[in-house]
Amino acid sequence: MRGVSVSKPKVFSTHVLFDDPRRRLAEHFDVDYWTGEERPPRPEVLKRVAGKDALVCLLTERVDQELLDAAGPALRIVANVAVGYDNIDVSACTERSIAVTNTPGVLDETTADFTWTLLLAIARRLVEGDRLARSGEWLQWNFDLLCGTDVWGKTLGIIGLGQIGRAVARRAAGFRMRVIYYSTTRAPAEVEKELHAEYMEQDRVLEQADFVSLHVPLRADTRGLIGPAELAKMKRTAFLINTARGPVVQEAALVDALDQGRIAGAALDVFEREPLISDGLRRDNVVLAPHLGSASLETRTRMAIIAVENVIAFFNGKRPPAILNPEVLRRK
Ligand code: GLV
């Protein structure tokens, strides 16, 4: 006897994801994928989200009142495939009893690896070296060719000692560095001990660090956190590393500080108006990356799996493991 077919909840996924998460999503839902190579244009997102029960989206999609209006009353959950969720108006979702989830915990180590990739690249002038080596213009070795600055034994300053900041700090031991940090909430004593991390006010971190690495989420209180006054506190020999979110740094102030030689350089994975990059940042003492912090195949797959698991749990009447607004569950 044929079973009665029950229609599956409808999902719009703004990316095809990777094989495993895609398979899991397809088992449980009727999925409409954006399959384009580029990110979907906004009108396309607004059109395709209409009437869907769930939205699986990336940090490039702005989930605001306009999108929620376009989605209509069916939308029950927005699953961001990112740990940062500054692209989502969570309170607007909460008002409409829409659950919001992110992907914490799976990208900390990978993002910390990339922070060190940038830090080492800027300190040891890797990008300049690569450019010279492949240009065909490297004609002879010389004693003072592309001398950078030592990393080992220096002071690493971390602003924001969350999970990613901690993973970055943990790696500093191998370089025999001193680790200092500022965070709005001071880490427990055992964490400070494990990381050999010294807590101090943000200004002291800026003044003392040879490398200042940013690991705060983008919120109203961290937007523009590093501006002219903060950059002026840094050593002239220090480098700024940003793998958090672009708008945490006032990009015009950073360009100005670099122009004036007030800091030695920067290594940036994120930008104020991503993917636009200020022309003033295209210089030898800045390493630029196109937002690759969590971009390993393993981690991006894990992130997508978590997003999918959040949606599956929700429609099974369970608490999604990474729900940001659990109060909406109590209203059902
Ligand atoms: C990446 O930037 C993320 O927030 O996951």
Written description of the protein model:
The chain has 332 residues and is an alpha/beta fold. It folds into two domains: 10-106 and 297-331, NAD(P)-binding Rossmann-like Domain (Rossmann fold, 3-Layer(aba) Sandwich), CATH 3.40.50; 108-288, 3-Layer(aba) Sandwich (Rossmann fold), CATH 3.40.50.720. The chain contains 13 helices and twelve strands. The protein has helices at 19-28, 42-49, 65-71, 90-95, 108-123, 126-135, 163-171, 189-195, 202-208, 228-233, 251-259, 297-315, 327-330, and strands at residues 10-13, 30-33, 54-57, 77-80, 99-101, 155-159, 178-182, 197-199, 211-214, 239-242, 265-268, 286-288. The strands form two sheets. It has a seven-stranded parallel β-sheet, with helices on both faces. Helix 7 links the parallel strand 6 (155-159) and strand 7. Helix 1 packs parallel to helix 12 (297-315) and helix 5 (108-123) packs across helix 7 (163-171). It is globular. The mean pLDDT is 97. Residues 59, 82-84, 107, 293-294 line the site of glyoxylic acid.
The rounded Rg comes to 22 Å
The amount of helix comes to 25-40%
Query: Which structural class do you get from the secondary structure elements?
Result: alpha/beta
CATH fold call of the largest domain: Rossmann fold
The overall pLDDT, averaged over residues, is 97
* Overall body shape: globular
CA-CA gap between termini: 34 Å
Q: Report the total helices.
A: 13
Name of the CATH first level of the largest domain: Alpha Beta
What number of structural domains do the residues give?
A: 2
Uncertain segments are none
Could you state the CATH homologous superfamily of the largest domain?
A: NAD(P)-binding Rossmann-like Domain
Strand order of the largest sheet: 8-7-6-9-10-11-12
- The count of strands amounts to 12
Q: In this structure, how is the largest beta sheet organized?
A: 7 strands, parallel
Level-2 CATH architecture of the largest domain? 3-Layer(aba) Sandwich
